[in-house]
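Box S1 | Example of a co-folding query
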Amino acid sequence: MKTSKPKAKPPRRIAVIGAGIAGIACARTLMQAGHHVTVFDKNQAVGGRMATTETAFGTFDYGAQYFTVRDPRFLLALQATAQHVCRPWSANLVRVLDAFGRVASAALPGRESHWVPTPGMNALVEHWAQPFVSQKQIELETRVVGIERDRMAPRQWQLRTQGSPGVPDAEHVFSGFDQVLLATTAAQAQRLLFDDAAHPKFAKALQDVRVAPCWTLLLAYPQASQPTLSHLGPQWNAARSNHHRIAWLARESSKPGRGGVERWTVQASAAWSHEHQEDDTPRVQAKLHKAFAEVTGIRAEPTMATVHCWGSAQTIKPLGRSHLWDDKAGLGLAGDWCLGHRVEDAFISGLELALSVA
Ligand code: FAD
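Box S1 (continued) | Returned holo structure for flavin-adenine dinucleotide
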């Protein structure tokens, strides 16, 4: 009996907007399948919310703090990645019960492993994005401001962009894409796709997705540096907190490969961040610093203190499926908000979108 093999799809030109873990997981899967992929990101570096900033006192992971590995597909991808890129973090995680820093138990029981890329959270995506960098198939500092049909070839797409490396006002048109995949936050996708109701089916699917903001405080205490001095404050390195302002605190310097200067990252709760989203920065910084001192008992003045507001940080209500893909239009959407609020959710979403497209 004759069996017919499924026809391999011919290579296509694909644009991926967003170089967070969803976008890069998607782009590299499509590249491995033989497609010509170009990645666009408005930031100077890849990683998205797996973000690391360098300061005179060492790095801070001011977005995602660590990741978990629950899905076998994520595990496989990590096993195929050079071992030095990600390391386990002994977070010594506790729950802080009140404004006086009372701890619920010595450690949260039965915790799964916490993984961190080194030297910063952005290193995993940076590693996976390397083929795009070396083949000049990534456009950084390039914000996509419009997605439209290519007038010369109406079955294809073109992207209008603003900015290019070192030239923030530059405007360009990149054309000739068979497919366009958005791996941005839900809000950014909405702005790009639906302002002119270009894709009503997707617009409807996204209308119930909810994502909370997050104010993040970064503090450095160079007066306390390992290994010569013991660290300041509590014995624990990370805590979930019931304090009404603070949801999470972590001693950055306890993560592997981060250097010894005592540094803390403090994340406000979703409710407090939402309530204070429009407040001015010094006010937010003062309030969060006060709460930090209450929870940790660290009264010393930090040498460096700064705050950052993530407009879209943590998914409260996800889409409920891994991605959106319209084969006829050649448009797709991925991102953590499809499935949840974790790094893994973003990875799986990007991977599943790529498998639908390939
Ligand atoms: P993103 O990382 O947001 O990537 C989207 C990319 O699209 C960005 O790089 C952006 O610049 C780009 N982009 C957007 N619009 C455009 C445009 N118009 N043109 C060009 N580029 C564009 N998860 C965990 O698992 N563990 C944690 O401890 C954890 N803590 C967190 C703490 C905070 C404060 C925040 C903010 C998030 C945290 N998360 C955590 C969530 C985790 O960071 C995300 O789930 C994950 O990084 C999302 O990846 P993504 O690729 O879907 O989106």
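Residues 281-296 form the longest helix (16 residues). Residues 13-316+324-357 form a domain with the FAD/NAD(P)-binding domain fold (CATH 3.50.50.60).
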